[in-house]
Amino acid sequence: MARDLAIDLGTANTLVYMKGRGIVLNEPTVIALNRQTGEVLATGREAWQMIGRTPGYIVAVRPLRGGAITDFEITERMIRLLLQRVGVSRFTRPKVVICVPSAITEVERRAVTDAARRAGAADANLIEQPMAAAIGADLPIDEPIGNMVIDIGGGTTETAVISLGGIVALEAVRVGSFDIDSAIQSHIRREHGIAIGDQTAEKIKLAIGSADVTDDEVPAEVRGRDLTSGLPKTVELTPEEIRVAIEDPVSSIITSVTRCLSKAPPELSQDFLVRGMYLVGGGGLLRGLASRIERETQVPVRMSNVPLEAVVLGAGHVIEHYDDLKGMFMGARR
Amino acid sequence: MPMTSWIILAVLGIALVAIVAMSRRRRSDPAASFQRQIDALSPEARRGVTERVRDLTADDARIDEESDDGA
Question: What is the ipTM of this complex?
Answer without folding.
Answer: 0.78
